Task: inverse folding
């Protein structure tokens, strides 16, 4: 077969795989109901200006809008409707732009009067709440801080489950998107990642279908920023333990993947698997049953995709020791997650990161893949981020960087813990002890 | 961003787009983009293997390589309905469904740059991503941006919408706390007890050997995916309860379809083993998941993985075997396969396939007979062999009669052969006599031969009439010889008398005899010459000589040669007869 023939075959195969990977049911529902939601909301915003809030003419469209939101909330959990650049996204899935008004206005324009770029529905609102929402959106925007005023107005009318989202714009990434303003903001990424894990657990607990795409976007951003970025080692104040654990295991796994020089595609799949590795707890509770429950929860996502196979097996294997032989050897991702998971669990158990990594070293070859462990410490170093150290000059510092070079394996960057944080490059200072 | 719009219309739309003018660079860029757009959309209209797709691929490759050679990097700005090169529009299409620009823009791509060092693999990968988008596949797992990121291009770069951020105009909003959903609470030890703290070892920075890195990479490749997919369902099926089966059945079906689309025979076998290994309710629940593999079309597809004449791998045979438990009827697919092998000139049939086919034939005599009625000549032998094997005493005249009613010559011949092998008997001979009236010369010849071997005396007059009747409309040499031989075998003396009449037709007497003297009919003489070979007696030789002399007098070289040949054969026979 010649080159073109091979190309035809390969393209045919890829398209076949892509077809196998789609979840037409979910996509169809989101598209259909999302379009309905946006169309009804936009239409109601305009027609309700002509009627009193209790006018019967609004009854049917309000009931339909309420029902559409409820159906979507049942399927997706919290709904995040974002209108930007004449496009509308529902939980990151683009839905068809509804018909524009005769004046050319669209949903984004309607919301922007309140300096809002979207609406988040944390639960399905009642018909009364929908009517109140329409009233608030149709009211004259406050001259000062209109979005905050809108939120207050909503709360005052008993709408505590709809949140006006900030104005949005697209963030440009990639080769030509080097503008500083468009770089991933590390702390926001931690918050987003933690919330994604929490949402996934919530969804599994409630039997909802999982949406992988936003999780994959978090991983893509982590890879773009670098999973070891100094500013990522920050714990959001409101983060749940499980949300933060999922995000940290994702970071550690991606660092390990860097050490193993895995491809971008594998890193993406690994990152998603890591974010979701303990999701079974939400269904089966803590302890070992969560491993199987998590695998099954991930298996439920319809459509065949290599990423799905990888994460199901990764979750299935993530508590298995390297020496276990029953069932064959753990998968690559399973062995990687095992190291990352145990390391974070040690750290979560208030063991110093330096001691935790030392403990992992003791398990290399027994609990953990020894070569993988080497790749892990090559990226995390002797004093992984979060390690408290005492310097020879008496200052206490907390490490904040992963390994920058082989030479600085045991000499990361750190910040002082007392007083205003001061950055200390440990290659320029002397470590006295691990605290 | 993922999109959620309907699939592109696969109607017979034109793939042609208007060319734009301008500078050589813009013209060439336009050519590249038209070729790219056409190639990407081709999959909405054509199968990947279609010749048109091949042509579009070639156009795309030529146009892109040509541009890069002549003008360097192709840097495109993506606008809602246009693509621009250095500010100049080089591709515009207002139809959103057809517009490459629109697809890219709506999926978040804002800039696309292809560098001169781009490889064919990268060009193809770019096309693949766009094709998947054009074909309207809505993936929940990936979007164009993640797909392009995964591709890790070296010579293709893109700027994309990588997410949404709060705009600069956003206001501080501490006044009212956001109604943030509260995360569900879980016990602190949700992941089980922390791992034991183990005594540390000495460790430091060590480079991982290249071989080890390659080993890790080799664990997750397209080649390992099928095995992992099977392992995934195998592990989870272990001790699965009925509630879990609701998740596992669709998963098995997904894996099955994936393996089938990739024609991964070994792993399909493994999957079938996993399913076949289930017991009780699990087996009942899961069994139907394998049934689609047992469908005739699918079985043909599986069998077609073996090149004609090649030996079928054990995995395939085992898979087929396992599928019989799920309703697979392997008989026809296997016979088709054998037929294809025979038609391709294979000298030997794969014994494993034949054994499998024979196994599949058990208890299916009627199916074999039905098959026999439509089988190719080469396959007839196999099917007859199977028939004998599955029902040694069952090759009755009734069966032969049904075969003789077939429209296929090969089947009718098989019927004659069965009757022949059955030996003389009233029923068999009666069917053979009917076969003499067949419209196929091969069947008539075979029937005459069988009747002769059966010494069915009453066949003599039937064959005689048959020859005379055919002679009137034209009988060919092969049939004449066969009929002559049959007549001679059935009754040599009567045959000689008959043949004598054909060689020396009785002449009328009287005044008109010279005018109406009966001539020798050429094909009757031919029949006689052929038949006389086995008729003993010197008179036979004289008859043959007469026939030869008449042929010479009529300058019929062929008939003369036939007669001389018969004389030679008769002499050889006479020596044998003593």
Result:
């Amino acid at each position: 077969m010649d080159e073109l023939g091979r190309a035809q075959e390969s393209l045919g195969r890829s398209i076949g795989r892509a077809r196998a990977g789609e979840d037409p049911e979910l996509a169809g529902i989101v598209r259909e109901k999302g379009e309905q939601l946006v169309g009804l909301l936009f239409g109601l915003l305009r027609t309700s200006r002509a009627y009193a809030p209790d006018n019967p003419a609004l009854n049917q469209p309000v009931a339909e809008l309420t029902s559409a939101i409820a159906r979507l909330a049942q399927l997706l959990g919290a709904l995040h409707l974002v209108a930007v650049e004449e496009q509308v996204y529902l939980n990151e899935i683009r839905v068809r732009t509804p018909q524009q008004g005769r004046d050319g206005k669209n949903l984004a324009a309607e919301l922007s009067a309140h300096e809002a770029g979207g609406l988040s529905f944390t639960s399905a609102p009642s018909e009364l709440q929908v009517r109140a929402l329409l009233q608030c959106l149709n009211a004259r925007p406050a001259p000062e801080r209109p979005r905050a005023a809108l939120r207050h107005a909503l709360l005052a009318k008993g709408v505590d489950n709809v949140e006006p989202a900030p104005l949005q714009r697209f963030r440009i990434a990639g080769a030509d998107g080097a503008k500083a303003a468009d770089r991933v903001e590390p702390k926001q990424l931690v918050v987003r990642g933690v919330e994604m894990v929490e949402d996934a657990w919530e969804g599994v607990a409630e039997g909802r279908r999982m949406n992988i795409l936003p999780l994959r976007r978090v991983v893509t951003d982590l890879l773009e920023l670098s999973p070891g970025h100094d500013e990522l080692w920050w714990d959001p104040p409101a983060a749940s333990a499980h949300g933060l654990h999922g995000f940290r295991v994702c970071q550690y796994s991606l660092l390990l993947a860097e050490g193993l020089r895995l491809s971008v595609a594998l890193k993406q799949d690994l990152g998603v698997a890591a974010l979701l590795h303990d999701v079974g707890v939400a269904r089966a509770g803590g302890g070992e049953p969560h491993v199987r429950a998590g695998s099954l929860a991930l298996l439920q996502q319809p459509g065949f995709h290599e990423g799905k196979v990888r994460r199901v097996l990764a979750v299935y294997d993530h508590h298995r020791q390297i020496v276990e032989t029953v069932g064959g050897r753990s998968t690559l991702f399973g062995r990687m997650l095992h190291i990352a998971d145990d390391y974070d669990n040690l750290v979560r158990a208030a063991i110093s990161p330096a001691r935790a990594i030392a403990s992992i070293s003791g398990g290399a070859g027994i609990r953990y893949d020894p070569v993988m462990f080497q790749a892990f410490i090559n990226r995390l170093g002797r004093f992984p981020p979060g390690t408290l150290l005492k310097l020879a000059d008496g200052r206490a510092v907390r490490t904040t960087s992963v390994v920058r070079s082989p030479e600085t394996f045991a000499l990361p960057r750190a910040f002082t813990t007392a007083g205003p944080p001061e950055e200390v490059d440990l290659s320029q200072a002397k470590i006295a002890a691990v605290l | 961003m993922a999109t959620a719009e309907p699939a592109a219309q696969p109607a017979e739309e034109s793939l042609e787009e208007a060319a734009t003018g301008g500078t050589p660079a813009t013209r060439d860029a336009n050519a590249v983009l038209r070729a790219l757009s056409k190639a990407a959309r081709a999959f909405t209209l054509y199968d990947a293997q279609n010749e048109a797709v091949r042509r579009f691929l070639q156009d795309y490759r030529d146009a892109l390589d040509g541009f890069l050679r002549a003008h360097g990097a192709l840097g495109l700005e993506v606008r809602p309905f246009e693509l621009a090169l250095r500010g100049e529009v080089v591709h515009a299409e207002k139809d959103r469904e057809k517009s490459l620009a629109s697809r890219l823009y709506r999926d978040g791509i804002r800039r696309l740059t292809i560098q001169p060092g781009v490889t064919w693999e990268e060009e193809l990968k770019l096309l693949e991503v766009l094709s998947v988008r054009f074909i309207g596949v809505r993936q929940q797992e990936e979007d164009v941006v993640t797909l392009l990121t995964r591709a890790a291009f070296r010579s293709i770069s893109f700027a994309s919408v990588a997410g949404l951020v709060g705009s600069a105009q956003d206001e501080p909003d501490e006044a009212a706390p956001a109604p943030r959903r509260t995360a569900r609470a879980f016990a602190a030890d949700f992941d089980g007890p922390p791992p034991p703290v183990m005594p540390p070892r000495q460790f430091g920075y060590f480079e991982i050997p290249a071989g080890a890195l390659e080993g890790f990479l080799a664990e997750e490749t397209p080649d390992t995916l099928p095995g992992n997919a099977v392992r995934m369902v195998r592990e989870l099926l272990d001790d699965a309860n009925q509630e879990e089966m609701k998740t596992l059945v669709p998963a098995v079906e997904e894996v099955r379809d994936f393996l089938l689309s990739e024609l991964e025979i070994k792993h399909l076998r493994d999957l079938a083993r996993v399913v076949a290994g289930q017991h009780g309710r699990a087996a009942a629940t899961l069994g139907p998941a394998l049934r689609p593999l047992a469908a005739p079309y699918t079985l043909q597809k599986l069998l077609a993985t073996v090149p004609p004449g090649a030996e079928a791998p054990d995995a395939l045979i085992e898979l087929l075997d396992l599928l019989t438990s799920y309703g697979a009827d392997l008989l026809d697919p296997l016979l088709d396969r054998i037929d294809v092998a025979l038609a391709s000139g294979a000298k030997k049939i794969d014994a494993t396939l034949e054994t499998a086919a024979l196994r599949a034939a058990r208890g299916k005599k009627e199916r074999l007979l039905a098959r026999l009625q439509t089988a190719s000549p080469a396959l007839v032998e196999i099917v007859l062999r199977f028939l004998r094997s599955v029902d040694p005493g069952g090759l009755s005249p009734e069966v032969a009669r049904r075969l003789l009613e077939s429209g296929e010559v090969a089947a009718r011949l098989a019927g004659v052969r069965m009757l022949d092998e059955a030996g003389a008997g009233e029923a068999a001979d009666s069917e053979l006599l009917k076969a003499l009236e067949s419209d196929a010369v091969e069947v008539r010849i075979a029937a005459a031969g069988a009747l002769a071997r059966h010494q069915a005396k009453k066949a003599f007059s039937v064959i005689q009439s048959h020859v005379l009747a055919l002679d009137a409309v034209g009988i060919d040499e092969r049939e004449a010889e066969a009929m002559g031989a049959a007549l001679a075998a059935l009754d040599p003396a009567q045959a000689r008398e008959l043949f004598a009449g054909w060689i020396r037709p009785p002449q009328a007497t009287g005044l008109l005899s010279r005018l109406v003297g009966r001539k020798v009919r050429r094909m009757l003489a031919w029949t006689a010459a052929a038949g006389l070979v086995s008729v003993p007696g010197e008179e036979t030789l004289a008859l043959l000589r007469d026939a030869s002399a008449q042929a010479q007098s009529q300058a019929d070289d062929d008939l003369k040669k036939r007669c001389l040949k018969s004389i030679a054969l008769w002499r050889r026979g006479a020596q044998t007869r003593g």
User: Anything to note?
Assistant: The first strand of chain B starts at residue 2 and ends at 3.
